[in-house]
Amino acid sequence: MTPVTASPDPAKTRSKTSTRGATAEEMATRQRDISVSEFFAKNRHLLGFDNPRKALLTTVKEAVDNSLDACEEAGILPDLAVIIEDLQPDRPATAKSSRYRVTIVDNGPGIVRKQVENIFGRLLYGSKFHRLKMSRGQQGIGISAAGMYGLITTGRPMLIYTKPKASQPAHHIELAMNTKTNRAEVTIDEETQDFPPQRLRAVSPGARQLASEGAFLAPTDFKTGTSVSIELEGRYQKGRGSVDEFLELTAIANPHARIVFVPPSRSSADEEDVLPLPKGLQRGAESAATPVPPAAPAVTTESNGVTIFPRAVHELPPETKEIQPHPKGIELGILLQMLKDYEATEKGGTLFQFLQDRFCRISAATASSMCSAIKVTSRTKVADIEPRQAEALFKQFEDAKLPPPPTDCLAPIGVRQLLAGMLKGVRAEFYAASSREAEVYRGRPFQIEAAIAFGGELPGDETARVIRFANRVPLLFQQSACSSFKAVTETAWKNYNLSQPKGSLPVGPLVIMIHMASVWVPFTSESKEAIADYDEIRKEMKLALMECGRKLGTYLRKRQKMRRESERRDVFERYIGEIAKAINAINGTDAKKLYDKLLEQARQRTAVADQQLDEDGKIVRDEEPDPDGVIIVTQPSTPVPGAAAIDGDAKRRGGKTETPSLF
What we know:
Blueprint: H1 10-17, H2 24-29, H3 36-42, H4 52-73, E1 79-86, E2 98-106, H5 116-121, H6 142-154, E3 158-163, E4 170-178, E5 183-192, H7 205-212, E6 225-234, H8 243-253, E7 258-262, E8 301-303, E9 306-309, H9 332-345, H10 351-358, H11 364-373, H12 387-399, H13 415-425, E10 430-435, E11 439-441, E12 444-454, E13 465-470, E14 473-475, H14 483-490, E15 510-518, H15 535-587, H16 591-605, E16 630-632
Parallel strand pairs: 1-7, 13-15
Antiparallel strand pairs: 1-2, 2-6, 3-4, 3-6, 4-5, 7-9, 8-9, 10-12, 10-16, 11-12, 12-15, 13-14
């Protein structure tokens, strides 16, 4: 008889064959909350701090965005100073990064003392996330994340000066974020009269010169405002994706702002994959000494290393208003949460009141009909709504024919300001702009604007330059993933006399600008570098581009015809002088009179060469042209060949010299 062996104990077997012996209770003790600042400290690439060069740009971008938002909300024309100091100028040439101090000063309303720690020392804290109103910042992450990055890389706290009232001293605060608690720890808190900080006026020879002229950080121009300084590990380098490019494009999209940029004393060597800015987008340092006619538009200049982006228009963008969500943009889970929140804040509130108070475009009649459709009365309380009735209400939202949401929550740049910005930053001969009517995606209003610049100093043998904006903020990275870029490549530019390889950008001296204004821009990531590819958004972008393209195509066709006729006239004028002299030698006919008659005939037969095109690319008649949407900069014409043989005065043909104007 075979003896019966006891089966082995599973627990003992497991302990012998495996080193894993944690119990559910032991694993439970390891669970804990994750601070949002601790998460982003480990995943800072999500916020745009994935390399030293991009980290420097992101820091400048977040601070500039906050300054522009604050100034506009307070009704102040923005005056900004961006200063980057190289704290390690003697570093070796092979160094991949350096330590910089980035300072942004604005003339905005300042920040009240009790809010400084929350604004600069906490992630996901702000006033813009929950409201449906156009603004640059949305998430409440940017400037505090920049301070967190500076603290991680250099160990230095943020240095803040804020002056909310002109008659009172400024607050000087130094604080650092505790990433474990997502709270700020203040090390210095004192009052001072030093605003803007006197030290900043002497950071470079160019800054000292401008300060002595009252053109840089003058106390009379900065009666209130905020100054933020962050020390960080970064890399300053010119070219694509640089601080210089960001400020160039910011000045184009915000022509009402004046920005002074003081770069560091030393920049890193250019990398091989970094392209220089196109010639037409270079700032006007070389021509700064050339006299500019009084009527000329404001252009970017450079003085002793300091770049000045002047104010091109003196009107603020229209003030925006906050709106309520549109029923078409609400999902079922959101609706259920809104019902709970309304019951908590409005005890005894009815569904009839809820629909009108918490949504836009729902009138009293519409609210009453929706209540009837889900078989409740106008007096039914929100607390009495059952889940099945909430689902029926959501179905009513989907089926109802409602007007689109109001658009006074948006502040588009506008055609006139688009042209002013392009004139300030791009050297071209033809400018066109288009601003579409507002449309809706996911119940949220948005508006698309486009502008193009053609010819002039722009390179003719390269692909077109695409500059993208969202709520007036330049988007410099992830271009191929952006809906704006896809809209440009899908537009048939061949229809407008431009060369375009299949599925690519057009080729020629062209700069294309696209701007999206919305209460909530659908970015593809937290770093806000590209716009998500919604069909409604891309369709509007293409329509705006097509409108600009039609204006350009009309201009190019007329210009080509004028050029052909001008060349034809050149042939006549090349020989009529010699013909007049020969006939004079043969029969004694007055050479001057004969030349004038022959020249008159030549001009009659090539009259197209003398025509001028208006701002729509049409021939100028007796009536005044409509200047909406286009600017053409004409160049001085050349002397007529051969005329000097008869008449000592050099004659001119073709157009005339004009100063570009917005009117």
